[in-house]
Design brief:
The protein has helices at 23-32, 38-49, 55-64, 81-84. With 104 residues, the protein is mostly helical. Helix 2 (38-49) packs across helix 3 (55-64).
Length: 104
Amino acid sequence: MKSLLDTPRYKKKGQKMNKIWQEHEKVFIKNNANILKDVELADRLSKMTGRKVTLQAVRKQRQKMGINKIPGRGRCRVVGQEENMNIQCSNTCGGCGDKCDGQD
């Protein structure tokens, strides 16, 4: 008699397994996370690899790599990047280049 522990829970017939990220793809994410949005990263990776790379896949991989972005729409900077910049943000946002709501 088969027990429940012997049956695969997540593998169904015909189901593809998740794609393993290549090292050059991870390097691309690491090098460009601070200048591109996740949507743009996914689009460029799709063109580079010839396979469909989704926004969710890029975001999850970036988070697994320990790269966190500043929250907000249209903001590309990585958390911790502000300390490395010598530019002080003002309410006019002429310096940092990010969209600003005046709370920086």
